[in-house]
Request: fold
Amino acid sequence: MSNPSQLQPVLDRIDADFDNSLARLFTLLRIKSISADPAFAEDCRKAADHLARDIATLGFEASVRPTAGHPAIVAKSSAKGNGAPRPHVLFYGHYDVQPVDPLNLWHRPPFEPIVTDHADGRKIIVARGAEDDKGQLMTFVEACRAWKSVTGSLPLDLTILIEGEEEIGSKNFVPFLEANKQELKADFALVCDTGMWDPNTPAITTSLRGLVYEEVKIKAANRDLHSGVFGGGAQNPIRVLTRILGGIFDDNGHITIPGFYDGVKDLPPDILAQWKKLNLTADTFLKPIGLSIPAGEKDRLLIEQISSRPTCDVNGIVGGYTGEGSKTVIPAEASAKVSFRLVEGQDPVKIRNAFRAYVTARLPGDCKAEFLDHSNAPAIALDWNMKPLAAAKRALTDEWGKEALLIGSGASIPIVADFKKTLGLDTVLIGFGLDDDNIHSPNEKYDLKSFHKGIRSWARILAALAEAPR
Amino acid sequence: MSNPSQLQPVLDRIDADFDNSLARLFTLLRIKSISADPAFAEDCRKAADHLARDIATLGFEASVRPTAGHPAIVAKSSAKGNGAPRPHVLFYGHYDVQPVDPLNLWHRPPFEPIVTDHADGRKIIVARGAEDDKGQLMTFVEACRAWKSVTGSLPLDLTILIEGEEEIGSKNFVPFLEANKQELKADFALVCDTGMWDPNTPAITTSLRGLVYEEVKIKAANRDLHSGVFGGGAQNPIRVLTRILGGIFDDNGHITIPGFYDGVKDLPPDILAQWKKLNLTADTFLKPIGLSIPAGEKDRLLIEQISSRPTCDVNGIVGGYTGEGSKTVIPAEASAKVSFRLVEGQDPVKIRNAFRAYVTARLPGDCKAEFLDHSNAPAIALDWNMKPLAAAKRALTDEWGKEALLIGSGASIPIVADFKKTLGLDTVLIGFGLDDDNIHSPNEKYDLKSFHKGIRSWARILAALAEAPR
Reply:
């Protein structure tokens, strides 16, 4: 058990050391750890080495651990022998980042971090990974550093687990969990990869949408054709693909794939009432991105559309001639990347099969479809009455001076399901991201306030969790 | 007037000199005269210089002529002073070629020509431009060379006009015609840029479809978005684009754009009867390209679908993430290249505007569409009773031992309209291409037989035209 009187000196230490915290984050942000591109494999290893070395200096037993892909880091800190048993928490983050294209839309090089002013005056850290997830995971590491430096120890036992393949589906990390499940035992998990409700209101995410991500390729003729010679007679795979994808939504924004909504439940009336009170409007949510009309199901609130309802997006499409000027070609094939955000009650395998059946049923006789499965993760609904939640919520409320909310997220963090399935752990999802952080996009940023108060939040949460009933 | 007895020695000379003709074609094919890409501007100039020099050696007054883009070539050969007035013919071809991407689908480098065996045993010349249009234009040049070398002259007066921007819309060549119309006066024009009916049946093309080629870009949010955060709430321009393009065809293959078929006439019953007898089937036309079901209007013959009916093809589409793997992005924009083949009676400007109106009417409130006009050319219907046709038809029939057909082509050769409008010339379209030549595609080829008998055909046509009633 920690001594509550230790908390204030830890918070003071965080404030005093903040410039150094920022410098350490910048060092990490300069490493080009793009997991998707094999050209950056060495950078991924550098990021892992750097983090393990840094965390070891705090007094953790830290090691870089090989996987079949980019390495993971495991670091442990526990009270040795004496005293009552303490909670044991597993913290998870990831050091890998998304690719940076289109590079020409970045205002400055993505791996040269800077603190600058946002249009509305907020101080922001700009770099690939500034939020997702280097900035977020460093809020936790810096909180540990402050505790260790002020008190010589942490208020609870802790395993820090950092992976390098979150952005590419954790395909090699899940087997790593399985192979090391004895070593990774804990009471529950903490993940710092989510967001706040708004820049002043902290939040704990208690539901996450699942993700089915399919690539579909339509093939017609055995080669590219000249549209002057064959146009009108030969089938065009772009025509087929656009016709199929163009039919996925009806006029009211509902998804037309048979069986898509099977198992989807309406929100409990009390939650719906709470969400209505949050009053998320097109003006606050869509206007900053240049839009004004919610694009989802017309009979649903915007907050439902983005967090509790399943969705479909075409994330990429390509076929034929896409360079400058014109070419009168009928291509041999065309392809699209199509993803579905799932909610509780939807079975990802059934959704994937329903999509494939939908496409196949609409193929003209001459065309073939090939499918590639990029992701297949169910939605997560956490137990709203989980014990650590109350302690974490109180700590967040103390730090931000505003009641922390329990919210649903539209995004997917498949690892949460794997923690439950492989390690038997429930997860508490706390993060300090904002909707305008441009994660996965050019000019990714993290509010300086998110980084600073994020560190302070974790310092408080560690204390609160240590004292919480178990 | 030429002496008919001169023809046989000319044909013999063509046969004897054929290896050299092929070597000269290869020299031209090695020049990377891709007009679309500014990086190859110097190669375009090289091709023009080379051709002008070569044609000058035949005794033409030949010059390379600057335009606002790639240069043109004008070469003249006429009897000086003595004898009765002879027909004066303007021959047209182009030395520029299409880009070569996707390069990885070529079996060998596109600018290293080779004679090889087609799967079915035909000898073929493989290279970018082997058919379109270097191979075709050289059939004519080599026929002139044989006439000059055997008889010292040509049987008629001739202007050879070769341009370097056919593949990019002849934007700078049309003003060149206008500026030089006195110099380019002739009785009629010959163009060698079309095809045969089949590998054994020669043809004269008497109608050409027009071409409207539009690029449309749909814009939604002001930046790329994360589909986890915004999916369901934010409009996705790929969804909008696929929905709009996917609605262009109805279930029977008709184009749904209001007004699209305005002015389109049915074929005269006698022509339709002739075409029916040609018995163009899916088995002969589509099977070689791996297809089996005509994709056009279900109530039309396949031969109508590809030559006398207007069509639409999406020639390219791109949006969002198209690399390896997955990225959960909602892109800010998506775009497509959409072309329409037009027939007699359709106004290209009206079609363009109808397409733009169709797209605009289907835009959700939050989206914008931007349009770019790549081509805007009407269909051409030549006079079936034009005098030189009969002579040319007879010459072709003599060479191939099979009645030459008068056919419609699905492709567009906009320069034919410009010859009529600017120079007042009717055009006779004769060429030796085949449907499986892969023009505009990887592994473009020209049958060795097309090249050889093409040269012989032109030698006969020149003689026949000289003797034809005027």
Summary: The longest helix of chain B spans residues 448-467. The mean pLDDT of chain B is 93.
